[in-house]
Write a structure and sequence with these properties.
By secondary structure, the chain is mostly helical. Helices cover about 80% and strands about 0% of the residues. Keywords: Coiled coil.
């Protein structure tokens, strides 16, 4: 298979753009690694930070739905009732049942 000159030029351009973006992605990954290392050095839990970032990326409605399901499961397993979050969930459930 032979490519025409214009197709070859377009292919070179696309490959060059992809390579440039891959380099930028690697640089950003290194920057993120440094920021997480800085956070860890300052006493922050990096796993928790990653979860916070993931939560902030979510749509608010989706986040609320997932939280409600999680609370339901934890409550059903008896893992939530003795925490402030659990007490709020129990109060919300009791209020819903009373209505």
């Amino acid at each position: 298979m032979t490519l025409h000159s214009s197709a070859k030029d377009q292919l070179h351009t696309i490959v060059a753009r992809i390579e440039r973006l891959e380099e930028e992605k690697a640089a950003l990954a290194a920057d993120l690694k440094e920021v997480y290392a800085e956070a860890k050095a300052n006493g922050f839990d990096t796993k928790a930070l990653k979860k916070v970032i993931a939560i902030r990326k979510q749509d608010e409605e989706k986040r609320r739905e997932e939280q409600a399901v999680l609370e339901t499961y934890l409550h059903a397993l008896g893992m939530l009732a003795d925490t402030p979050l659990g007490e709020a969930a129990v109060a919300r459930e009791t209020a819903a049942e009373a209505a």
